[in-house]
Amino acid sequence: MPDEHLKRPPLTPGYWGGWLAVSILWLVGKVPQGLGLALSAALARVLPRLMKRRYTIAQRNLERCFPDIEEAERQAILDDCFQSLARGLFEIAWSWSASDKAILKMGDVEGLEHLLAAREQGRGVLMISAHISCLEIGARILGCRFHEMKGMYRPLKSPVLEWYQTRARSAYSQGMISKRDMRSAIRYIRQEGVLWYAPDQDFGPNQSEFVPFFGIQTATLLASHRMPRMTKCPVVPMFPSYNAETRRYSVKILPALTDFPSSDPLRDLSRVNEVMEAHVRQNPGQYWWIHRRFKSRPEGEAPFYD
Q1: pLDDT tens digit string along 174-217?
Q2: What is the C-alpha radius of gyration for the chain, rounded to an integer number of angstroms?
Q3: Residue 139 and residue 142: Cα distance in Å, rounded?
Q4: Neighbours of 75 (CB within 10 A)
Q5: What is the arithmetic mean of pLDDT over 255-279?
Q6: What is the C-alpha separation between 175 and 148, in angstroms, rounded?
Q7: 3-state secondary structure of 250
């Protein structure tokens, strides 16, 4: 990542809003986990009113992805989704300002040997995940055990928040690569780097192919097929989750996908979606259902969201 992304923005009035947000994040990151979880439970009760549009989007997603379950069960998943989102605000703050010692008390990594085995092939590794509410703290927990990786991300509009985010993440990784900078991503993998990537977003049909996700034809980014084809790298799934009973996080790393990639992008993208769906079904309330994951539709199909 260019050095200018790590330069601290000025303290002039035009940046005060960003500095206020960073100060709050830093302070929240010092809140003990028990207190943070209690506060997040209170926040979860008001979030649906503060995020009415996103609440409606999540309702629609759950109706279509879980058509065979009772409405009460879908509502429970929806409630859990917003509880996870509220908790995620604290998880981000902890990830960016808590000490390694504090972070390691919150969770564990399972299956790190699969990532290490993939690296032993002498190539880079594409580590895929999904947009799960505890993804940030999962990356931080993994970063305490394995630092030699970069992540693909969407830069923030606020220069101060972008600086703070990049600075924090660079403390437990080798840095970040913008989702718009695919050349740097390819180069990093070819240099035997481990690149974390979450391809479950809808960037339109021009960058995607339609393959099933929860039985719905879903615009799925071609990058998770193209990057392994171009670099010959193994693809390793990684998913974090939160256990409400133990109040601990688990980062689960799975074995590298076998016979991947193939020459068929539809086959590869379907496999990636299958792996993601299997994890989401285990912890459905922890997925970011507030995303308009199905906004792009195959030609001639009616809009997904009214």
Answers
A1: 999 999 899 999 999 999 999 999 999 999 888 899 999 999 99
A2: 19
A3: 5
A4: 12
A5: 97
A6: 9
A7: strand
Which region, left, alpha or beta, applies to residue 175 given φ > 0 means left and ψ of -120 to 50 means alpha? left
Q: What is the pLDDT of residue 231?
A: 96
Using CA atoms, how far apart are residues 279 and 201, in angstroms rounded to an integer? Answer: 16
Q: Maximum distance among all alpha carbons in the chain?
A: 55
Within 13 Å of residue 83, how many CA atoms lie on the same side as its CB? 16
- Measured CA to CA, the distance from residue 37 to residue 35 in angstroms comes to 5
Pair 94, 106: CB distance under 8 Å: yes
Pick from 103, 95, 146, 127: nearest CA to 253: 127
Element (H, E) at 221: strand 216-221
Q: What tokens were used for 249?
A: 């996080």
Q: Which 8-state DSSP code applies to residue 66?
A: -
Of 52, 112, 107, 126, residue with least CA distance to 82: 52
Name residue 150's amino acid: K
Q: What does the pLDDT read at residue 306? A: 78
What contacts 230, CB < 8 A, 6 or more positions away? 186
Distance, in Å, from the CA atom of 75 to the CA atom of 62, rounded to the nearest integer, reads: 9
Sheet holding 248-253, edge to edge: 107-110, 248-253, 235-243, 125-128, 194-197, 150-153, 176-178
pTM for this entry? 0.93
Rounded distance between C-alpha atoms, residue 218 and residue 210, angstroms: 5
Euclidean distance between CA atoms 4 and 143, whole angstroms: 23
